[in-house]
Amino acid sequence: MSPSATAAKEVSAISSADGARSADGVSSVGSVPSSRRRGGGLYTGPARVMESAPSSAGVLKVLLPGETVARDAVVAYSASVSLQEGSRVLVTRGESVDQVWAIGILDAPERRLATRDGASASVVRDEAGEILEVRDAQGGLLFQYDPARGVTRVQVLEGDLELLAPMGEVTIAAGGGLHLQGRSIQLKTLSSVRILVHDLASRVLGSMGLGRSGLEVKTGAVNVETGDSNLVTTRSRFRAEQASVDADRLRTRAGTVEVEAESLVQRVGSLTRWVRDLAQLRAGRVRSLVKGSWISRSGRADLRSKETFKVDGERIHLG
Prior knowledge:
Elements: H1 3-19, H2 34-39, E1 43-49, E2 53-54, E3 59-63, E4 71-75, E5 82-83, E6 88-93, E7 100-107, E8 111-114, E9 120-126, E10 129-135, E11 141-146, E12 151-154, E13 192-198, E14 204-211, E15 215-218
Parallel strand pairs: 4-7
Antiparallel strand pairs: 1-3, 1-6, 2-5, 3-4, 6-7, 8-9, 9-10, 10-11, 11-12, 13-14, 14-15
């Protein structure tokens, strides 16, 4: 039981004893007679704190009932709570009026634990309820737990925050989203980084892995939108059941281009080819259908046929 709860229970017992006191001045529960508690010097009961001070200071300024001058009370409980003016404590006084001890806390506007260097943990109230806060020696918020809103916050206003498990693992799990925000984000690993997307049945729907051997992406679809892109690779390989390229302008520059296909179909509005040295065509059969004119010019022409060579036209001009 906390010191405040214990003290409140003691005061309640004393009050009950006063109400049940017998005619000879002694309570029915065996408490100290009222005349000895207040009149002659002995007293155990509530007192009001007159100056704000942490109870860890060792001495409190308190005002006892029926008195007009505050006196010093030696703190005789272990709790370290900051008491404000008007807080109530449970005190006991000996035969001498200067022998006063504070033995418990009845109420305090702020519940606070403090270290010698000023770091503290306290319970504060707002319109939603109570909030648990931990602050450093300069008053900066380090930890906050708000049960009414369901929010737990850890923050470091200055310096670094480190989570270390040199001989184990670190797991961060969230039922909702997980957000990382920073001026820069860096991941370091000795083996690999792997991202998995799975459904409620833990079936993997997509994955991305980056390791020493390379980058591996497995997913149903990939959509990349960028203003400019540049791919530099020593070797590359592209494999697809179907492929489509849509571009306003497409330019290919290569030392050698090889195309292997069972069927090649080209549909263009206008086709122009420049061949610097040799243009060579090897085919089982060649069929050329020209709707309009067919013009062929060369410095020298050589047409040969092992079998029939046929020229058919309404007019044939030679020479």
